[in-house]
Each structure stands twice: as C-alpha cells, then as structure tokens.
Amino acid sequence: MGPGFLCVLATAMAAKSRSRNFAAAVADSVAIYKGSALVESALNGDKAPPVLCRLGSGAAPLLLAASEDASGEGPGLLCVASAGGRLSFYGLEEAVDQGKEREVYRAEIEGEEAVEVKWRIWDVVVVCDSGRVFLIEPLKNSLACVHEIVDFVAFTVATDGASDIVLLGGAPASESAETSSTVWRLDIGVSEASPMFIEGVPEDYEESIAQAYCRGLQALRGVVGKSSSNSGANWDTDGVDIVCFFIQDMEEEITQTIQVVLTVAVGAQSATLKALSVNEIYFEEHPDRLLVHTAWLPDWSLLVLGASGSSDLALFSSHADHTEGMEAGWVALAPPEGKQLVCPQADSQDQITALRGLAF
Predict the structure, then answer these.
(1) Inter-residue contact 217 to 158 (CB < 8 Å)
(2) What is the pLDDT of residue 289?
C-alpha cells in the first residue's frame, strides 16, 4: 500500500448483533475486528486482537466505506476499493456474526482508480482520479457514470442521506472559466452539475478560497437543533452544516490549509460561511493524492478532522458550552500545551506517522 492517501479504517456494524466493530486494511486483505478488543489492545500497546473475518484476500485494498445505518434501514455492506478500479461489496452481518465472507457485488471501473467513496444509504458515490464520478447500486448490480469532467474536475464528494443532490469539491477554475467556485452541486438523478457559490466569505479570504483546492467535504448531521441522519432528513428538505477542507499553494512552496464550516440551504442551492480557521492541519507540501478523514460525534457536537499525508488532528465544536456569545456557532478547540492531538511517532522515533483513517 502506498503512503499518503489511503483510508484503512471504517466502522462496521452488523444489524443483528448491533456491536461496534472495525474494518481495517492490512496488507492484501481487509480484517474485521471486534471494536472493544481493538481499542483495548491499542490502549495497552498490545498486538492486534483476533480477527473476526478476513475479506478480499489478495485485493490490495485502498479505501474502505461501511454503510452508515445499521438499524435496518440500509444494505449492511462494506465497500472495499482496490487497485485497478475494483470495488467489492461484502455483507457485514455474515462477516461480523458468522465470520464468513460474502461478496454481494463487484464493480470494475476501467481505466480509473477510486480516490473517495461515500455511501448514500443504499448506494455509493465514487470519485475517481480522473475527476469523473460514478454511482454504484450494489443490490441492483448497477454501475453508471454520473459526472464527466467537461466543466469541473472532482476531488471529493459529500452526500446527505438518500438525496439525489451531492456536493463536489475540486480544483480552482482556470482564468478563462466563467465561474471560480470550487464547490459544485450535482444532481445524480439527471447527471447535471452547477457551481455553488459560498456567501459570507470574509473579504480577506475571498481570493484564498477562490484559488484553493477543495479536497474534503463532509455533511454534519446531528448538529444541535437539526435532525439526525437516521430520521430520513437530508438537504432536500432541511438545511445542514458541512465542513470543507481547502488547500492553497502559496509562494515559496508553502502549503496553507483552510477549514470552513458552511450551512447548506434547503435544496442545496446555496451555502453560507459560518466559521473559518486556517492551518489547523499542516502539510510540508501539497500531496498528489489526499483523503480527508472525519469523525463526527453528534452527542458532543464535536468534529475530529484530519487528512492523509499529515499527522495533525483538529477539533471543532458547535456545543453551547464552547460557542456561547459567538455568532458563528463554531469554534476550533486548542488542546492544552503538551497535549496536542497528533498521530504517534514511528517505532524508530525519528519520524511521525500519517493519518490513515478515523472511526468511532
């Protein structure tokens, strides 16, 4: 596995047992671990616990994505993206409860590599390294391209429930382009994309955001005062906050990161900036491939944010205890000195490790 852009950890819950388990990419397969045992071994510095099940031996997994809803609404599948544009879907109930591998569907995207996979409850949206976007419906054995790279090259995608509207993030527009937006709205039902303009950007940051690459998008369901994702709500009928991760190449080979929280209006027709923070995540240089990792804890109104290629983790909160008197409603939390939240050093102690995934 190559460094710097892989997601190697995903939460894998089975509807029957309701136990929280983790899927991890290990060498040439995917291992399913009991969540409590994996956490305990990590805390104690022990070796990895026994594997409940191994999936896709010999497939060289690059990305993992488990269907989010394990309460009966959803397919209960784990998507494994491997080299060569292969995406395999495995039944979680069989893997977790029976220790058996059951491949439900396999898709091959010729000439492409998947760089991001997001579930839409029953199907997945796949962003490929070319900038094209595909929709895979594993229970229908269906694969379709829903976005070509005519006007916009996609790097990342945000989904919200089963909505046909997804948001795409990508590269800044060329000087000859009619729009400078790096966030687009895609209706996958009709394969039509249009730019989304961000309102409320401070004047000092307008140029920076216009020239930055949007490399990560994540909808934040469960924010205080909003519905949870399990209720069926999505941005078709209910506004939602999303986090955007921008990278800007500055002079003298300096890379700047900009973390932005937006409120997406009903219908995902427009977005308004609520909060902005700079350089919470540090890169020595702009990586060729990058995957943003997030863990959203709605009960705490807390977002943990990181990215492959960096060891840093950032904390953002919308909890009333942290935002009282603040108009934005969001704040970046700074850990106490000496308690920075970062990935551990390598065994040799002479280099740090890069983030490969977040799960809770």
Answers:
(1) yes
(2) 76
